[in-house]
């Protein structure tokens, strides 16, 4: 897993913690949406890295 994906997962954890601590519904909802977005970005980064590694492995086999 890349440093970037790890960082984004950390941001998601922080947003979830802030959502749990929120007393206002709109603040909780905003933080939950942010956590979801950070996780999606981390997953996209990991998917991209796996694809890149697969393409590089194919090039090495040629």
Short précis:
With 62 residues, this protein is mainly α.
Quick one: biggest sheet?
none
The SSE string, one letter per element, is: HH
| Count of alpha/pi helices | 2
Please tally the β strands and state the result.
0
SSE inventory with pairings:
Elements: H1 3-21, H2 25-61
Helix pairs in contact: 1-2
Description:
- The chain is built from two helices and no strands.
- By secondary structure, the chain is mainly α.
- The protein is rod-shaped.
- The relative contact order is 0.16.
- Helix 1 runs antiparallel to helix 2.
- Helices cover 90% and strands 0% of the residues.
- The mean pLDDT is 94.
- It has one domain.
Features of the shown structure:
62 residues, mainly alpha, rod-shaped
């Amino acid at each position: 897993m890349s440093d970037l994906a790890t960082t984004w997962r950390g941001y998601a954890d922080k947003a979830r913690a802030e959502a749990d601590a929120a007393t206002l519904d709109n603040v909780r909802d905003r933080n939950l949406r942010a956590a979801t977005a950070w996780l999606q970005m981390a997953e996209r980064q990991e998917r991209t890295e796996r694809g890149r590694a697969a393409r590089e492995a194919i090039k090495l086999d040629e």
